[in-house]
Specification:
The protein is 60% helix and 7% strand. By secondary structure, it is mainly alpha-helical. The longest helix is centred in the middle third of the chain and has 28 residues. It is globular. The protein starts with 33 loop residues before the first helix and ends in a 15-residue tail after the last helix. It holds the Pfam family DUF846.
């Protein structure tokens, strides 16, 4: 299903949505886009690690601030333009019409989503804003206002992607507050269950010829 706002310019969500002959089993692979999954997680994870450890290796707030912002910016661009489109078939974007009005578009095309990639996509998308929210509370009670500015920027960038993709998945007309709460609970429960009770891999069968 490909949902988009009527009257907006159409941009292909995927360059090629066809499955080549002989590649029909790709949907059953553990990961179809392993490098995309890696870069989906590495920038946001690195930003958190640098934020936690920067005080141990450098006394310069400016250097730490710039490094974390660069990692967050790379993560925002990667998640918004690449990983969301390829891992879960979702995309959100903005355009300005001839009258100068700004319009937001939320698209969904989820007919070829790998379950493992989708789980990791949503886990990274949800957990990182929660972690930055914890950092914000620490900065607030610790009166670390200069670090609070950095945390607010991180919350804005990671939260924008989370908000955009939740709207893509559930539609712009849904009650996002209740939908997001239910969706976050569902994803956290599924991720916890998958780690605690992993499912065995299905047995492989040999190819059979047809006479």
């Amino acid at each position: 299903m490909n949902s988009a706002t009527p009257g907006v310019p159409q941009v292909p969500l995927l360059d090629d949505d066809t499955i080549a002959f002989g590649e029909e089993d790709n949907a059953n692979k553990q990961f179809i886009h392993p490098y995309i999954v890696f870069f989906h997680l590495v920038f946001r994870s690195a930003a958190i690690v640098v934020y936690i450890l920067c005080g141990w290796f450098s006394d310069s707030f400016i250097a730490s601030f710039v490094l974390v912002i660069l990692l967050l910016s790379a993560d925002f661009w990667t998640v918004k333009n690449i990983s969301g489109r390829l891992l879960v078939g979702l995309r959100w974007w903005n355009y300005v019409d001839d009258e100068g009005k700004s319009h937001w578009v939320f698209e969904s095309k989820q007919n070829r989503v790998n379950r493992n990639e989708s789980r990791l996509f949503w886990m990274g998308l949800i957990l990182c804003p929660l972690i930055w929210s914890g950092f914000f509370i620490i900065c607030l009670f610790g009166l670390k206002f200069k670090w609070m500015l950095l945390v607010l920027i991180a919350l804005t960038l990671t939260g924008a992607n989370l908000y955009g993709y939740v709207k893509c998945k559930f539609g712009a007309k849904e009650n996002l507050q209740s939908v997001t709460t239910d969706f976050v609970k569902k994803q956290l429960f599924q991720n916890a269950s998958s780690f605690m009770f992993p499912q065995p891999a299905p047995p492989t069968t040999g190819n059979t010829g047809v006479v």
